[in-house]
Amino acid sequence: MFDYDEILSKAPVLTFEEAKKAHQHILSSVDGAGKDARELYNDLVNACISYANIRAVWSISTNKVRNDTDLKRTRKHDAVINNVDILERYLKQRNMDTGWRKIIGKERFGQERKRQGDFACYVAYICGLTAR
Length: 132
Hints:
Elements lengths: L3 H7 L5 H18 L1 H25 L3 H31 L6 H5 L5 H21 L2
């Protein structure tokens, strides 16, 4: 069983509120930065959806399946971080707000890496709701 409050009590995860705030900042910056920024944002969204899918399946898989897919999951996580890096760099070059990166994390290891993965799951969740 999965319980959001229980997860929050056990691990330092990115909360829905934090993810929402970061996402709203991204959307605001992307809206002000033009067509190329929107394309980079779409690349990020695609990477997030791909990673969130494999992460969700991994969470309910057997140890054998986890071992077999672990490298692929890591690569998809790396792709999310790469796309976050690219979007942040593009927005900085245009003097747009990138304070959202402090919320989701910047490092490629430890808790900040995990928070960026959490953010990917949040973005995939929002995309799923948008498709209603």
